Amino acid sequence: MAIVYDTFQHEAPQRLPLLSVTHPARTVAWRDGAPIGASRFLDHVRQVAAQLPATAATVNLCENRYMFLVAFCAIVLRGQTNLLPSSRAPQAVDEVMAAHPGCHVLGDLPLDQAPPRYQRLAPLEDATRGSDFVLPLIDADQVVAIGYTSGSTGTPSANPKTWRSFHASTAGNLQMLSAELGPRFEVVATVPPQHMYGIEMSVLLPLLGDVGIHAGRPFFPADVAAALAEIPAPRVLVTTPVHLRALVDSGIALPPLAAMVSATAPLSGELARAAEQRFGAPLLEVFGSTETCVFASRRAGVQEEWSLFADVHLHPQPDGTLVDAPQLDRPVALADLVSLHNGGRRFRLRGRHADLLEIAGKRASLADLTRRLLAIPGVRDGVMLQLDDADAIGVRRVAAVVVAPGLDEHAILDALRRAIDPLFLPRPLRLVDALPRNETGKLPRAALLALLHTADESQPQD
């Protein structure tokens, strides 16, 4: 079967393939334990594209990862934009739809409270293949997705991504992963495909690399083990620190892994080393943002410094860092403070400008305070934050919300007194059963403040 490039698809100065393929049988995904080749995948994409109404943008709410992948490409093939809310919560979807009047909503599940203009995908059917394998080409400057930040530091913001930028960012990820794994590997991901980390590691990798993705999104440790058993080696687990902690603590045995990848929240060296020892595979932590995509990585269990991808350059600023990367049209400012090493090819995080505290002339960062909180034996999860309102003497106090079964507030405060300046001791410190982490393990500030307020009302005041 010959490979033919569909040059009629979009008239543009530059077009890039929708799919990287050297052979029509190249496995793109694993569904129900069976491989789906590139030819069959594109049949499914064209089938869904034919069902889409004429609109500028579509909210992609597909839960099954293969259905999301098919829908993502169908939307792109129609010249539309994938809208990716920060969560599937109705309010988040409503906010995105309000910003894009007339947009369509596509999903693969029945919804009790479906948003307006919701279309549930029909079951996919296998078409009769012709003699040629036609590979679509996409306008490099087409905005194929708009990702929304999680709201962990404020209101979610929109970040448009062109097909050119996704090709460039994926090239960096593939180079980093191939150096560790070789050119071909299979992926199971616990993160939702709507999140930019999920897009990069479970949608773009199988599209633009020699990678096969498992169709599911396992959550519990036993489900992760079962999903990994359905794909061949070399296996890569794409996950978050929250899921890693659950896997390590569960004691479950996983099929042999070639590597683990983590992002979305800080990963402690202790957890990284425990995961590597438990599962016998390197743990690669990647660094990026919805605004920039991934641009650096490290072995968190053995490295403090991050290594930049090729052609990425950082420019430290007084209030953050400018990121210059191949996937960016212009440098993007992040709030992260860094120090450069090794001729600018490596860096260390020094916190975020918004995290820096100054009380009575002394300084600290919320990231470092949280790290010291999490280092206390018995603390399973927790976060330090600065309250919005000032107290009677004009100081915005530090608070903490902690998950620590078996410990009380006094024991945690006593441990913190030995690790931090007393000025930064959290008051209030509230114990809760769980933190309000979203699907990717992040902590939206509004949800965290609401939980703190609820816990504060139910306990004696300091």
TrEMBL record:
Source species, domain of life: Bacteria
A Pfam entry, by short name: AMP-binding
GO molecular function: ligase activity
Signal peptide region: none
Ranges where the AMP-dependent synthetase/ligase domain occurs: 109-298
SUPFAM superfamilies found in the cross-reference section: Acetyl-CoA synthetase-like (SSF56801)
Record keywords: Ligase
PANTHER family: LONG-CHAIN-FATTY-ACID--COA LIGASE
Protein name per UniProt: Xanthomonadin biosynthesis 3-hydroxybenozate--AMP ligase XanA2
Protein source organism: Rhodanobacter caeni
